[in-house]
Amino acid sequence: MAVIKMNKIAVLGLAKERSALLKSLLKFGVIEIDQEEPEENLGDSAYNLNVVSDLAKIDENISELGRAIDILSRYAPIKKPFLSARRIISEVDYDKRINKSDEIMSYATQINSAEDDLAKLKSEENNLRSQLDSIEPWLKLDMPLELTDTRYTFIQTGSLPGRTNLKAFEENLKVEFPESALSIAKSDEDTHYAVVFGMKTSESDIMELLRAWGWNRITIREGQGTAHERKEKLKASLKSLEKERENKRALIIELATKREDLEIISDAFQAKKIRTEAKSRLLSTNKTFLLNGWLPAKHSERVEEYINNHFFCAVSIEEPAKDEEFPVLFKDGPIIEAINPVVEMYGMPSSLEIDPRAITLPFYIFIFGLMLGDGGYGLIIALATGFALKKIRMEDKTRQFIKLLFFSGLSTILAGFLFGSWFGIASLTKTALWIVPTEQTELMMSYSILIGIIHMFTGIFMKGLNLIRRGQIFDAICEAGFVIIMYSGFIMILLPFAPGVSFSSDSAIVQAGYKVFVIGIALVLLTGGRKSKNIFGKIFGGLPGLYDIVSFFSDCLSYTRILALGLASAIIGDIVNTLATSFGGFIVVRVILATVILLFGHTLNIGLNTLSAYVHSCRLQFLEFFGKYVEGGGVAFDPFKAKTKYVVVDYESIALLNSGSKAGIL
C-alpha cells in the first residue's frame, strides 16, 4: 500500500455561485481547501470574507441543540450498542429534516425551557422546604408568627442555648419584669425555642437581660398565620410544585421522540459551520472567488466534469511538482489499515517517502505477540475482537484499532505455540515449538536482541530505499549500506558476550567481525563529511557516526523488554493457577474459590499485559524503528466535508464519484 497521489485544484468562479459550489463540494468530501491570503498589491479589491458573526449564530444553534440532546439523554436515556457507529441516513431523509429545521429548533427551545423551568421549580422547592424547617420548632404555638407587637406590648421569637436553666431564667425575668412572660415552643439538646412577651416601655431593658442569658432573636418573615397554618399552606404549595415538575418532565420525555431530528439538525449546523468557515479561506472579490486546494488524483476527472457541468467556473487541475509535498492520505486495504492508529499516533510520514505501514504491521503484531506471550490470552483477544468486527458496525478509527488487536491476538496465539504458554499452565511448556522463556531466560534475551537488530536493520534499509527513491543512490549506500556494515561488525565482535549462546572470542565469526567493523568505521569516516563545504568538515564529518554505535547498542538493549513482558505474563499466570489450586476443604468451596481466583486473576493479567504489550510495542516502533528512517513532517489530508457527530449522510454524489455514472447528480 502507498500514499494516495494528490493533484492541485484551482477554481475561479462567480461570487453568486460560491455557496452552491461549496455545498456540492462538501457532499463530495474529497477536496482539501487551502487558506488563501490576498497579496498586498491587490489592495482592497481582493479579501477574505469575514464570517465571525455568521459562525457565532451557528454556534449558538449548535449549543442549543447540544444542550437539548444532553437533557434528553438524562431524562430519557437510550442504550446504544457497544462500539456503535453513527447511523446512516439517506440524502432524501436528511433534506426532509433540513426543510423542517425551524420546527425542530422549536423542539430544542421547548426542551431547554422545560429544563430551565425545572431548575426554577427546584429552587422554589428548596425555599419552601427551608420555610418548613424554619417553622417546625413553632408548631405548638397557637399564635400568628408574623405578630410582633400589640398596642402596649412587644412579642419576640428567639432561642436560648440548650444549657440554659429555664427555671432560673424565668424566675430572673419575673423578678426584674413582673409584667413579662416566657413561652417555650420547643426544646432539644442544643436549643430552647421560645417567645417573650413584655411591655414596650421595658423592651430595651428586657432585651439587655435576654442577651445576658444568650438570647438569639429569630425572625420569621415569610408567610402568615400560625406555624400549623403555614405548614399546611407550604405542603399544598409543594404538592403543586411537584405536579408542575411532573408536567415539565413529561414534556421532555414526550419530546424525546424528536431526538433523531435534533441530532440530524445538529449535524446539519455542523456542516453549515464547515461551509461558512470555508468561505473565509477563499480569495474573494465583489464578483468572483478563487479556491485552491488538493484532491486525490483518482477523483480529479469526475470532480472537474461535475463542476464544469453545473457551475460557471474555470477549473484547473494539475499534478504537484516532483519534490513538492502534498497532504497525506493513506491507501487502505482490509489488512494494512489495522496499523493506521499506530502510525498516525507517531505522526504522518512525508508524502515523498515510502509508506511505512506495510513493513510496520508485521513487526508490530509479532513483537506484541511475543510480549504478551500466552496463546490462551491471544485466543480470547482474537475471538472477542473477531466477533466485534463481524457483528458490529464501527467507526473507521475504532474498526482499525479493533482489527489491530485481532491481528495481535493471532500473533499471540503463535507465540503460545512457540513458547508452550497457555493460560500460565506450567505442564504445557513441554509442547513449546521453539523456546520456554521461563526456563531459558538468557537465551530468550539474546533472541529478543536479535529481533531488535533485524527490526533496526530493516529501518536502516528503508532509509536507503527512501534515498534511492529520490535519486540519491550514493547517499543510500553511504547512510544505509556502510552503516549496516559497521553495525554488523560491532554485533559480531560482541557475540561472545551474548547470554545463552556459545561463541569464543577467537572463533572465525568474531575475528571476521573485527575486520568488518574496521571496514565499516573507515567507510563511515570517509563518507560522513562528503556534503560539507570546508575541508575540516569533510575530514571530521564522519566522527558523529561513530557515536551512533553507542546509541545502536542502547537501542539493542531496549528490545529486552520483549523478554521482560513475556516473563511477566507467564509468571503471573502461573501464580494465579497455583493460588487457585492451593485451597483444601470441601470440594464445592474449593471449586468456587478456584473459579473466582482464576477468572479474576487471568482477567487482570490479560488486561494489564495487553496494555503493556500495546504501549511497549508502540515505543519500539516509534523510537528504535521509525527513528531510523521516517522523516515525518507530513500533513494529513483534511477533506472539506461535514464532521458530524450523530449521522452519516449517504449523499448521491458519493455514488457518482465512485461509479462514474451520471445518474443521481445533485
Task: Give a description of the structure.
- Strands 1, 2, 8, 9 and 10 form a 5-stranded antiparallel sheet that branches.
- The protein is built from 21 helices and 11 strands.
- The protein has 666 residues and is of the alpha+beta class.
Tell me briefly what this model is.
Helices cover 59% and strands 9% of the residues. The chain has 666 residues and is of the alpha+beta class. Strands 1, 2, 8, 9 and 10 form a 5-stranded antiparallel β-sheet that branches. A 4-stranded antiparallel β-sheet has the order 5-6-4-7, with helices on one face. Strands 3-11 form a two-stranded parallel ribbon.
Q: Profile the largest sheet.
A: 5 strands, antiparallel
Give the structural class: alpha+beta
State the helicity in percent bands. Answer: 55-70%
Give the total of beta strands. 11
Mean pLDDT: 91
Distance between the termini: 33 Å
Number of helices: 21
Strand content: 5-15%
Shape: extended
Model regions low in confidence, pLDDT < 50 over at least 5 residues: 660-666
CA radius of gyration: 39 Å
